[in-house]
Design goal:
The structure holds 2 protein chains of 2 kinds.
Chain A: H1 2-17, H2 29-35, E1 40-41, H3 47-50, H4 56-72, E2 76-77, H5 82-89, H6 95-108, H7 126-129, H8 133-141, H9 145-149, H10 154-159, H11 163-176, H12 184-190, H13 199-211, H14 216-225, H15 234-247, H16 252-261, H17 263-266, H18 270-283, H19 288-297, H20 306-319, H21 324-329, H22 332-335, H23 338-350, H24 366-370, H25 374-381, H26 386-393
Antiparallel strand pairs in A: 1-2
Chain B: H1 7-13, E1 16-22, H2 28-45, E2 53-57, E3 65-69, H3 75-78, E4 89-91, E5 99-107, H4 110-120, E6 124-132, E7 134-136, E8 145-148, H5 156-178, H6 185-192, E9 205-215, E10 218-226, H7 230-243, E11 248-258, E12 261-262, H8 274-290, H9 307-315
Helix pairs in contact in B: 1-9
Classes of the chains: A mainly alpha, B alpha+beta.
């Protein structure tokens, strides 16, 4: 970036003062303030553009007109020599000559995203995307640009980068390590800051996984399911894997199983995970062995909202009066929403079918209680019709 | 019957009133948010508007100009075509968190209709369940118990007597508020016109209250009223508890009828998606058209019941 700024200062400013160039450069606001460089706003009429047809001659004329308009229109300039500049610019050089000069300058110093454009500083990509080849390539990859706008700093970060120079090597790298082509857009939507990492670091992080006996398939699965994995330094990842191994007394194979089952858990907020462990252990009263079994079967529970998890567990344990063993044998019940368990349990209760003990006749497994649609549940588990279940739901 | 797959046509047709079944424990605001979120998601899955055209200049030489789809108008760049907040959605009357049952929403142009419906002050019917023997700080069974009492002396006849006295007291107040004496000719003429309508939307009025289930300590009463709110019904149960020389807390409030809309018209939580919402919109339109006498102040165009005309309007 700094080199581009230097180029702008050294080469372009003299060109402008000599009256060859008078254009708008879209420069991120923060950069403008920092480097005190030129910013010329020209309000070009967009009407001429939209009415344009594919007819070659008319396009030629219109294009000429718009170019002339853009050079004739009023300029606002932050540069100290602005008055002199505009005077010089209004001299009688033909518009075409100047247009060629601009493109020559741009071609000479690969200016990346700094395209000739009339857009004012903006908060979204939509203003730039039709003029920027880099952004268009990202759209073709399937990146949700509008999702980037919500995140702080991404707009500036991406606009400073050129696709073929700064992004393509990373995309090639991701593809090579096994991120499927149709997942690349999703990957980059979630983690645009991958372009910031240096390749040596990324390779070291992959080698770390290899050293921990994750094969090629496993590594590509981890990186695909958790786009943030490669952002974490080897030391941090090692600490986190160590935390899980020590807290739950996991074997090496168990840790690999956990990582493959829920790669997001490893890079999740550590405070949240520790609190979840506390809630499950102290508030819900699970012992070490039960915790380990639960972690390996439903690691997603550790990322859930604590209060909701607790309410759900308490409903099953205290209201439905089910012991820990039955709940832990069917951990699906802890991942489904409370109202779902409640509605279905009350329905079974009204039919006197709420029998969750496997040793007794008329057994209904907790898994059968929560999986499937309402229609499937009503017919297969409650042995009634959907309409009866709907009527019951309207009596709650 | 006609199949429509274009989102803009669906959007233009998405006007009117719908009636949903509000689950207990969900706030009105959360319900609204879920509903408009579902509508926006479903609309985006239909055929949306393609991006606008844009003139691209591929090279610096001027003759190479191409017209193509604008990237600036691509859903990947500007976001989905329909967002939850694009849907105007307002409830006909606010329902509290602990209340379940019929809940009427106006969608897009129907939000005006929802407003008219509120101003028409339709009679609401509630099934309120109370539990005797406890009194809580919030008047419902979710609060902390502040008092316990016996309830074995309460019989069905005592309950009925108390409820009848409440109903009589309310009827008397109604005539008083209208400014007529109970024993006058004016009161008679007011009464023969039908239910006495309250002059404003402030004070709750009970038209009828009766016990429909009595199984101590639980009892269920059916309340037909206007201008009520959740805390009013809770305190009503508390007062009944006091009047039968015991205490009572409210365990559930279920709205079974809102003016012309009753519980069989209401959409359950799993039916809150576009297809069911459209079915419900036309059902509610038919119901409102049938009961247009209720909405005497409403412009007739709002309660139009002609599906064909609506479809033509949306196409033009």
């Amino acid at each position: 970036m700094a080199s581009v700024m230097r180029l702008l200062k050294r080469e372009l400013v003299p060109a402008i003062s000599a009256g060859i160039v008078n254009i708008n450069f879209i420069v991120p606001t923060c950069l403008r303030a920092k480097h005190k460089i030129i910013l010329l706003h020209i309000t070009r009429t967009q009407k001429a553009h939209t009415n344009c047809e594919t007819n070659d001659t008319s396009v030629h004329n219109l294009r000429k007109n718009t170019l002339e308009n853009s050079f004739k229109s009023k300029t606002v300039c932050n540069y100290s020599e602005s008055d002199k500049l505009s005077e010089r610019c209004s001299r009688g050089d033909s518009a075409d000559e100047r247009g060629n000069a601009v493109s020559k300058v741009l071609q000479k110093y690969d200016l990346g995203n700094f395209q000739v454009s009339s857009f004012p500083p903006t908060f979204n990509f939509a203003a730039y995307v039709n003029d920027s080849q880099s952004l268009q390539e990202l759209v073709k990859l399937g990146v949700n640009l509008y999702k980037w706008e919500r995140r702080k700093g991404v707009l500036k970060f991406i606009l400073e980068r050129d696709f073929s120079r700064d992004m393509a090597p990373y995309i090639r790298f991701l593809y090579d390590i096994g991120v499927p082509a149709d997942n690349l857009g999703q990957f980059l939507t979630k983690n645009p800051f991958i372009f910031k990492e240096c390749f040596d670091d990324l390779n070291v992080r992959l080698n770390y996984l290899e050293s921990k006996n994750f094969n090629q398939q496993m590594r590509s699965r981890i990186v695909t399911t958790n786009p943030f994995w490669l952002m974490f330094s080897t030391k941090r990842i090692d600490n986190r894997l160590g935390h899980f191994q020590e807290t739950f007394k996991l074997s090496g194979g168990d840790v690999r199983h956990l990582v493959l089952k829920q790669a997001n858990l490893i890079t999740y907020n550590m405070h949240h995970i520790k609190t979840s462990t506390f809630v499950l252990k102290e508030e819900l009263g699970l012992n070490e062995k039960e915790l380990r079994a639960l972690l390996l079967r439903r690691p997603r529970l550790w990322m859930n909202n604590h209060l909701r998890l607790k309410n759900r567990f308490e409903y099953v344990h205290l209201e439905m009066k089910l012991p820990h063993e039955i709940i832990l044998k069917n951990p699906e019940v802890l991942t489904s929403r409370e109202f779902r368990i409640k509605e279905r349990h009350l329905f079974l209760k009204s039919l006197k079918r709420d029998q969750y003990d496997p040793t007794m006749p008329g057994y209904v497994s907790l898994k059968a209680l929560v999986v499937g649609t309402n229609a499937e549940f009503a017919v297969n588990v409650a042995k009634t019709s959907v309409d009866t279940f709907n009527m019951f739901l309207k009596s709650l | 019957m006609r199949y429509v797959s274009e989102a803009p046509i669906l959007w233009k047709l998405l006007n009117g009133v719908i009636c949903v079944y509000k689950p207990q424990g969900m706030t009105s605001r959360a319900l609204r948010q879920t509903l408009i979120g579902n509508i926006a998601n479903d609309l985006n899955e239909f055929e949306c508007r393609p991006p606008n055209n844009h003139v691209f200049s591929r090279n610096s030489s001027e003759s190479q100009v191409v017209v193509g789809q604008s990237f600036a108008d691509d859903p990947l760049v500007v976001g989905p075509r329909y967002l939850p907040n694009d849907v105007r959605c307002s409830w006909a009357s606010h329902v509290g968190r602990r209340t379940s049952g019929v809940f009427v929403f106006g969608i897009n142009k129907g939000s005006v209709l929802a407003n008219h419906l509120r101003n028409a002050r339709p009679i609401r019917v509630y099934h309120v369940t109370g539990r005797m023997g406890i009194a809580t700080d919030t008047y419902d069974t979710y609060g902390a118990v502040v008092e316990r009492s016996t309830f074995h002396h309460v019989k069905r006849t005592i309950m009925d007597r108390v409820l009848a006295s409440i109903q009589a007291a309310h009827q008397k107040t109604m005539f008083n508020r209208m400014g007529v004496h109970m024993h006058s000719q004016a009161a008679y003429e007011l009464a023969v016109k039908g239910n006495v309508r309250p002059p404003d939307g402030k004070i709750p009025f009970i038209y009828s209250i009766k016990c429909i289930e009595f199984d101590p300590p639980d009892f269920t009463i059916e309340v037909k009223c206007v201008n009520e709110h959740e805390s009013y019904l809770k305190t009503l149960v508390h007062d009944i508890g006091m009047k039968v020389h015991s205490t009572a807390a409210c365990s559930s409030i279920r709205c079974v009828r809102y003016g012309p809309f009753s519980i069989e018209h209401a959409l359950l939580r799993r039916h809150w998606h576009l297809q069911c919402i459209f079915d419900n919109l036309s059902l509610c339109r038919r119901i409102l058209h049938k009961n247009r006498i209720l909405m005497c102040d409403t412009p007739s165009s709002l309660i139009e019941n002609d599906d064909k005309k609506l479809l033509e309007c949306s196409k033009s």
